[in-house]
Amino acid sequence: MSQAALSFVHPTADSPWGTYLSQVDRVAPYLGHLAKWIETLKRPKRTLIVDIPIELDNGTVAHFEGYRVQHNLSRGPGKGGVRYHPDVTLEEVMALSAWMTVKTAAVNLPYGGAKGGIRIDPKQYSRKEIERVTRRYTSEIGIIIGPQQDIPAPDVNTNGQIMAWMMDTYSMNVGGTATGVVTGKPIHLGGSLGRVKSTGRGVFVTGREAARRLGMSLEGARVAVQGFGNVGSSAAELFAQAGAKIVAVQDHSGTIYNDNGLDVAALTAAVKETGGVAGFAGAERMNAEEFWDVRCDILVPAALEGVITAERAQRITAKLVLEGANGPTVPTADDILADRGVLVVPDVICNAGGVTVSYFEWVQDFSSFFWSEDEINVRLDKIMVDALCKIWDTADKHKITLRTATFAVACERILTAREERGLYPDPPRQPLRCGRGGASTMRALRGPLFIRPCNAVPSCPPCSPPPPPCWPWPNPPPRSRNGRAGQCTSWCRRPRAARWTSSPGCWARSSRTAGASPWWWTTSPAPAACWAWTWRPRRRPMATPSPSASTAPSPSRPSCTARCRTTRRKTWCRW
Questions:
Q1: pTM value > 0.85
Q2: Dist CA 288 CA 285 (whole Å)
Q3: Which of 1, 99, 461, 499 is deepest in the core (most CB within 10 A)?
Q4: Sheet of 46-55, strand order
Q5: Which residue has the higher pLDDT, 105 or 571?
Q6: Which residues are marked as active site?
């Protein structure tokens, strides 16, 4: 049966959520029996939309729209950033949270995926107004975040100061300092060394490994970077240190180009002063669309999603694309780049360095023991390289792209966790209808479960016609209670214990006093009589057998007797 689409979003083929759904559909053939759970990945677990009213500095009241989406929590608490941008939408945040689910699983971190955002242009408001927005937003989403529930982090237009305000607001509401509620905090508030540059470092590490496998030397390689924030600037700095030439950079202020390579250190200093690359003196200006025609070996899109369209994919000259941003390549462009032989290292592995060091920070906050930056970088490099090697091997095995291989590895881990956890509440079992004494419905646990063979005791009502054997639980173990297959022992029901079997059939219950709660039975020899079960209420004591009830010795233990009683069309026996 086909599943209905979500009613509150209407994605297009190239929109963020539509792009994500297309990526999930492509990985379905490689999931095997786990494919039955794939609908789980197409529906966010929890979506929260909040109103954020604040008083501006001029005395007026402004309202902002905020979101927090938790996509999947099967592998652990939600993890994902919070972005401040005037064009943030619910669909975009949903897609970003879904990519976080895949990203954390791709590098095998014990997290689920989440994301948040506020529709605001922070450049248009004062520092105090941004603080009010942040604190009110944190209070509104406080019902679903926490160190063990959902851990926000910085994203577009947010930083360590925003995280400090969020941590303080949450701590005031819960009545204690909770440093683990967010990551990306300032160092003296429980932040981690290396967190600011971690995403860019992850881009560089995966790019270095991919270039090595392609036989490309970084020495003298031409690199173009789209976006020069934390991710783009850090990646550019590391590539320059490795001997590459940064020939073009583009951000919101403009595009600059230098065929001989840009001075990354000077450019970074200029951006801190002016807020953009457009005013840098050591390069020439160029049109924004001309950026995609620049001759380069490595392209790093590190700005926003959806920038590599099908038309631009035809013009890209790079041999290697490193997705520093989330979802920068639309599905049609992905296919074009693959047909042209351009290797794309997908965002869900390429920019996973940030969430990896966020995990390090979270762990350090819980232990109150902090690592050096060298230790963090070594651990980060190992996790990123190991994850990429696993994905690369999967791609070679199935002859698929790195993106599909990343989703295959990640989705297998996510859906395995979903399958092993099961569904809550448990799906209803079919009622057992065996003989006249069988229970007609599966009711709540109100007493010990009795299993009896209808024809084993003379006074028990017969089963006619005898239905096929009823097995209340699947996969019965092949051994009997006394350890010998196909042979059962009769037990008396001991006081204050729940340990008994029926005789001469092969049904046995393990002793609760021994710490074993499940029911155990064997399959052979199969009982000839119908087996039925009923519930005996705990607070209703077994009445003394009336003259109409029969008492017969147990075949296996003469000292034990069997009693049967029928009341209100229900029958139970006691051995």
A1: no
A2: 9
A3: 99
A4: 46-55, 61-72, 113-118, 78-84, 150-154
A5: 105
A6: 115
